[in-house]
Design a protein that fits this description.
129 residues, mainly alpha, Arc Repressor Mutant, subunit A, 6 helices, 53% helix
């Protein structure tokens, strides 16, 4: 019964506890990544940009059903501010802007693909989502 209690699994000495739960510990690092990815539309945007390396906003708007122009613009800006995607303005008339993953975004994709594989292998109850 004691094995099921999670606080017994946290390291008890101070250094190991900080490594796990401290302000710069494992939980903090994972939380920071989860914050970048949080939101209904960020994952679909990232997977589309992974599938097609450079896309215009109008293409993303067509590909991701039910997203509004306003929401797409907000999420693109957030992902750009987080350094996950880059915006390339060609300075042409009419305006042409394309979005693509940065090296940071490309580095994140194997983690997301591993999470997808985990989900496919392990049926997650619908009440979790």
């Amino acid at each position: 019964m004691c094995e099921a209690i999670t606080h017994f699994k946290v390291p008890m000495n101070y250094e190991d506890r900080l490594w796990c739960l401290g302000p710069d510990g494992s939980a903090a690092h994972v939380r920071r990544v989860m914050t970048v990815l949080s939101g209904r539309w960020k994952l679909p945007i990232l997977f589309r940009l992974f599938a097609q390396p450079s896309m215009r906003a109008s293409q993303l708007l067509r590909d991701i059903s039910d997203i509004s122009q306003k929401m797409l613009t907000q999420r693109l800006r957030e992902l750009e501010n987080d350094g996950v995607i880059q915006r390339r303005d060609f300075g042409e008339q009419p305006p042409r802007v394309e979005y693509s993953l940065t090296s940071l975004g490309l580095e994140l994709m194997p983690v997301l693909i591993a999470m997808r594989s985990f989900s496919q292998r392990n049926a997650v109850p619908s009440s979790v989502t």
